Design the sequence.
């Protein structure tokens, strides 16, 4: 295998290699040939060759398939010396094609070698397979092989630098376009490291550090690449390298680039923020690169400033400015992460401070703010680093962490001692809702937030212990209530609600002297939804005000109907809710309905509960006096079951007291009789009329007659009924001119 015009293959000629004592890295050369001798002589010929201060490292393959395996294992092969004819006549050509198409590697330099050139015409192969060089084995003397290797490796080096450069720029551009993402400054800073290393033709091994906000002496690693990658978001001191720390500090303090023996530190000078990029390299920056780097760093400074600005905006968006802890948006993001990677050992809680508004009202908002800071501080310090604490609304804190820490007992313990707010020490009580990461099936972060709020509401409504854990049935019940509210609103708009009437009688004669208007909600299947269920929903949704106005209007119209049909001169008692009474124009609304119906005001009796009296007694008294002046009568419903002061009975313009049916049911017992007789005696002394509710037995009727209680109401006399049935009953009573009981027997 020799030529008459050149030296024998691989015969030594003048050395062209440059030797260094401490090589940094290698150029990987893959030799692919089915002849082991070719491997040996190629390795011998290229021994001790150094290109750009890096020696060669040889990989070996003896078939096309084995070559592809080696390339899959090593993505940094600079050059492949590839035999054409191996297991097949075109095995090498197929490898070349797979390198470019299947592996997508456009950096590796491919040099084809063949001992049988007839199998692969040179011109066609170079064009079709993106080959960098094509030689017959007889052409490759050692000097020519060296020339080929030097040319290929340097071409690879240049192409690699260009691609690294492009990738670094792409990373910076990408991070700049996604600055609002959580780690935008990290992506940007990592791109800085990669880009500088690419410009210098180095591996991306380095960090970007800057002074941590609010900590003058601490330097934070913002971005990192290579073996520094795990140091992001950590203090520079955690690298345990005095040389790196001192170099970065020197760069930031002196505000200039620092050249060290094994590293260069570049100063990034922004208007408000400065950073230092530490790059590991033994190579000094060449003069022709310095100008390029200065331009690059000037642009990077602008980008770094923008990245910090957006990072501050992002921080502001996810940080509560009052307490300095994460806000609701950040808490929701934490819950989203939990929902995507659920852990059964993670608990989620919301902590609601009871009656916090009293602090603001009594001591002022400044003290309230200090109190919230004090609560946030105790929660974060006492619960530890493994627990995430946030403020998600005015006086509500969101917490996530291990189940053995985020527990009702642990949280309640934190609120045993009072909290300091300025000169005040304020005791607090809280209500808590809990859920678990186990409840994340088909639920995202917002769904988990809804779960803990459902548990919180349940704790406020039902739990004596002031905490509750989410159960799916809670959500089902909540959804049912929301659906009922929606349907109630729709049915009310479509006038599907009905007003029924229950007779009120004179106990001695059992003659109907009045009726109570009662709301009914019929369903399409003939059933009714209980008022005990839908009235609270109407009050909760605010719909009760409109419904209450309609009931007054309907009742006044019904009195007008009674008069038109010549029926007895009846009154109608109408229940009034707390929200209705809160409207200051309520007396005007009643007056307007009475005037439009053309009825006497004395025919209308408004029934209020003791809960209304407890709201604002002075305001209630004023409204009742205005109604009294109109001629409207007023009764207290369910008297005795509330907690209002009896002194208000003297101040309020009342006409009637309705004894609650719970007392009537106990009228056969001595203890029950004592309470009833006390109420009756008091009412008589105050000049008030008395009506006993819920009479169901003749003995109860007789008992109240004996107490000189004149009126009664209950199933013993009649159940609630639609207006058409009431009219029929009243007509029968009129015709018979007898008692209600006689008319029912007939």
Sequence:
């Amino acid at each position: 295998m020799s030529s008459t015009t050149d030296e024998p293959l691989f015969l030594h000629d003048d050395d062209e290699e440059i030797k260094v004592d401490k090589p940094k890295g290698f150029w990987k050369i893959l030799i692919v040939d089915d002849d082991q001798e070719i491997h040996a002589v190629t390795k011998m010929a290229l021994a001790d060759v150094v290109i750009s201060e890096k020696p060669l490292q040889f990989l070996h393959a003896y078939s096309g398939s084995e070559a592809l395996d080696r390339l899959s294992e090593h993505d940094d092969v600079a050059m492949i010396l590839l035999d054409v004819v191996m297991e097949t006549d075109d095995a090498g050509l197929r490898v070349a094609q797979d390198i470019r198409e299947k592996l997508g590697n456009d950096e590796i330099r491919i040099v084809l070698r063949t001992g049988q050139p007839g199998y692969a015409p040179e011109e066609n192969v170079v064009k079709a397979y993106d080959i960098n060089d094509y030689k017959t084995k007889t052409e490759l003397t050692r000097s020519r092989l060296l020339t080929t290797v030097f040319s290929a490796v340097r071409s690879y080096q240049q192409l690699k630098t260009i691609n690294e450069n492009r990738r670094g720029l792409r990373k910076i551009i990408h991070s700049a376009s996604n600055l609002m993402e959580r780690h935008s400054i990290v992506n940007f800073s990592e791109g800085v490291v990669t880009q500088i290393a690419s410009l210098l033709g180095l591996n991306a091994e380095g960090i970007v550090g800057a002074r941590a906000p609010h900590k003058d002496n601490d330097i934070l690693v913002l971005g990192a690449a290579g073996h520094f990658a795990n140091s992001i978001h950590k203090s520079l001191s955690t690298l345990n390298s005095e040389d790196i720390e001192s170099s970065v500090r020197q760069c930031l303090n002196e505000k200039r680039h620092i050249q060290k023996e094994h590293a260069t530190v570049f100063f990034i000078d922004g208007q408000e923020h400065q950073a230092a990029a530490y790059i590991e390299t033994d190579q000094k920056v060449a003069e022709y690169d310095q100008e390029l780097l200065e331009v690059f760093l000037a642009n990077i400074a602008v980008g770094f400033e923008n990245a910090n600005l957006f990072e501050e905006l992002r921080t502001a968006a996810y940080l509560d400015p009052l307490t300095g802890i994460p806000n609701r948006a950040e808490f929701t993001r934490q819950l989203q992460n939990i929902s995507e990677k659920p852990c059964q050992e993670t608990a989620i809680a919301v902590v609601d401070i009871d009656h916090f508004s009293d602090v603001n009202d009594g001591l002022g908002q400044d003290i309230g703010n200090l109190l919230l800071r004090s609560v946030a501080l105790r929660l974060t310090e006492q619960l530890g680093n493994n627990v995430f604490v946030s403020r998600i609304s005015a006086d509500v804190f969101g917490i996530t962490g291990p189940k053995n820490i985020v527990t009702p007992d642990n949280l309640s313990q934190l609120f045993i001692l009072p909290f300091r707010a300025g000169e005040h020490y304020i005791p607090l009580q809280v209500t808590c809702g809990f859920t678990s990461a186990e409840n994340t099936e088909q639920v995202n972060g917002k769904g988990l937030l809804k779960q803990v709020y459902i548990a919180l509401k349940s704790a406020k409504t039902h739990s004596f212990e002031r905490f509750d854990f989410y159960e799916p049935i809670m959500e089902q019940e909540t959804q049912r209530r929301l659906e009922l509210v929606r349907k109630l609103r729709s049915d009310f708009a479509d006038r599907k609600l009905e007003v029924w009437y229950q007779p009120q009688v004179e106990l001695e004669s059992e003659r109907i002297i009045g009726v109570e208007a009662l709301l009914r909600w019929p369903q399409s299947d003939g059933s009714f939804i209980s008022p005990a269920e839908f009235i609270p929903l109407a009050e909760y949704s605010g719909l009760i005000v409109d419904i209450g106005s309609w009931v007054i209007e309907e009742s006044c119209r019904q009195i007008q109907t009674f008069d038109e049909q010549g029926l007895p001169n009846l009154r109608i008692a109408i229940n009034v809710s707390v929200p209705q009474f809160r409207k200051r124009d309520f007396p005007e609304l009643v007056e307007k309905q009475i005037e439009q119906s053309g009825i006497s005001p004395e025919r209308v009796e408004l029934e209020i509960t003791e809960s209304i009296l407890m709201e604002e007694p002075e305001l209630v008294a004023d409204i009742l006096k205005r109604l009294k002046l109109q001629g409207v009568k007023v009764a207290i419903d369910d008297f005795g079951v509330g907690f209002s002061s009896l002194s208000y009975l003297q101040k309020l313009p009342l006409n009637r007291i309705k004894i609650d049916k719970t007392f009537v049911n106990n009228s056969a017992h001595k203890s029950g009789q004592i309470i009833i007789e006390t109420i009756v005696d008091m009412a008589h002394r105050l000049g008030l009329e008395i009506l006993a509710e819920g009479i169901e037995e003749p003995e109860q009727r007789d008992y109240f007659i004996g107490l000189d209680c004149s009126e009664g109401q209950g199933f013993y006399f009649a159940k609630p009924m639609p207006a058409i049935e009431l009219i029929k009953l009243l007509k029968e009573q009129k015709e018979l001119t007898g008692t209600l009981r006689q008319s029912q027997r007939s």
